Amino acid sequence: MKKILIIEDDQSIHDLIKELLIEENYQVVDAFSGTEAIYMIQKESPDLILLDLMLPGLNGEEIIKQVNDIPIIVLSAKISMKDKVENLLNGAVDYITKPFCNEELLARIKVHLRNRKKKNQELSYKELTLLNDNCTLLVSENKIKLTKTEYAIIKQLLLNKNQVISKNELLELISETTEDCDENSLKVHISHLNKKISEYSSLKYIESVWGIGYKLKE
Amino acid sequence: MKKILIIEDDQSIHDLIKELLIEENYQVVDAFSGTEAIYMIQKESPDLILLDLMLPGLNGEEIIKQVNDIPIIVLSAKISMKDKVENLLNGAVDYITKPFCNEELLARIKVHLRNRKKKNQELSYKELTLLNDNCTLLVSENKIKLTKTEYAIIKQLLLNKNQVISKNELLELISETTEDCDENSLKVHISHLNKKISEYSSLKYIESVWGIGYKLKE
DNA sequence: CCAAATCTTAACCATTTCTTAACTGAAACG
DNA sequence: CGTTTCAGTTAAGAAATGGTTAAGATTTGG
User: What are A30's strand-pairing partners?
Assistant: First the structure.
């Protein structure tokens, strides 16, 4: 499921686009100002960005310059050829003038998502780095091969660093990967994980919180 | 120097565009009919195609369907949204309605050449080189003949070297070539591929990642 | 329309991973 | 201090996955 960031301060237009995208089964994240946009790009790393040029805070042109590897489609009421050409040359991949036709927007979104593979973003915490390949954990440069369940578990812990995850929550979160996993099975997986990590690190990374669940050691 | 193919039967428009592109230091090749276009695409393998839809011989829509990995910008007087959307979905990367502004055309050409540069990778890896003929893989000078499904599989693996591709993803990617392929069938194809490659190489190139998918051996 | 090439199906076995369950140790609590 | 409950470790067996092969179905090319 592809993730699209809508950067648009006009609430009604924003909602309109959002509804359209959700109907087409895209995951949508929102930003209503330039500064919020930069934050959301880093936090969510969307697959594609729809950008209105006139924004409070940082303006659209600045955002285009700061983003490198996510396709940006500019949606703008500015129809001057100078704007259009400049933004395309600066890094936008398309420029659609408002008002636009929904079908055309959707078609152009598909064009730019086509063939694009999701960016390789890595999760990390201290010496640990989880690669985006579903099976590798780095412990300070050393590659450890994980099973898909172990990968799912450490991924959730890394996504929630500094927080305790209850065992039920964790089981729920990994249920897509590993269906029939109960608490007993979970503690075996955690044990395996700690054993694998301890081969390359003196820290015991996964800590249990008595009666509640697990978290990464501080 | 990038090579652009202009497919346009109207001589005056054709010349206009050609002049514009040459001024911008592009190398230009010409086609004035659909059939000539197909011939020129094979002979010249241009980096980008500018395509007028209404052509003698094969029409533009057919050309779009036949071309896979060269970006096509449609230039058309047809302004109906249906045409626009259909052609974009069928494989065109952009659609500019005539009459158009020269600067916009140049900007959009740059956008799509830029995209292609990022995407375009050599289809080779260590001793392996995949020829562009849909059926030949070189293993250090030795030609191996592949079936179209085997070709599609190794192509996707080469396009995603250093990454694990899940079996579902792989099935999705080759579905255009081979429709009714399931996981069982896939593992047979992979087995055949490894067998063929192993005749000329001691490395086992296609590695399975247990429970996840496949990747090329590091 | 036939022969050859290719693809899918299914069975077999080897391997990896997961779960189960028993045992041991530690924390909470009266 | 002893009991209870939870956590960690371990090993064994169950289950799932991958590789190989061959047979039959389907497609392709002459």
Answer: A6
* One domain for residues B11 and B106: yes
Question: Cβ contacts (< 8 Å) between A105 and chain B: which residues?
Answer: none
Q: CATH number of the domain that B153 lies in?
A: 1.10.10.10
| Closest to A93 in 3D by CA, of B71, B75, B68 | B71
| Burial class of residue B63 (count of CB atoms within 10 Å of its CB; 0-12, 13-18, 19+) | buried
Contact (Cβ atoms closer than 8 angstroms) between residue B20 and residue B106: yes
Q: What is the pLDDT along chain B (218 residues), one digit of tens a residue?
A: 899 999 999 999 999 999 999 999 999 999 999 989 988 988 888 999 999 988 887 888 888 888 877 899 999 987 788 989 999 988 899 999 989 999 999 999 999 998 776 555 568 888 899 988 889 999 988 999 999 999 999 999 998 887 899 999 999 999 988 988 999 999 999 999 999 999 998 777 899 999 999 999 87
Q: How far is residue A80's CA from residue A158's CA, in Å, rounded to a whole number?
A: 46
With residue B52 as reference, give the H or E element that holds it: strand B48-52
B10 and B106, same structural domain? yes
Confirm whether A118 is domain-assigned: no
Q: Distance (Å, rounded) from C-alpha B36 to C-alpha B198?
A: 41
Kindly determine whether the C-beta of residue A98 is less than 7 Å away from any atom of nucleic acid strand D: no
Across the interface, whether the CB atoms of A107 and B101 are under 8 A apart is answered no
Shared domain for A169 and A144, answered yes or no, is yes
Is residue A13 situated within a structural domain? yes
Question: B104 and A81 in contact by Cβ < 8 A?
Answer: yes
Q: How far is CA B23 from the centre of its chain?
A: 27
The tally of domains found in chain B comes to 2
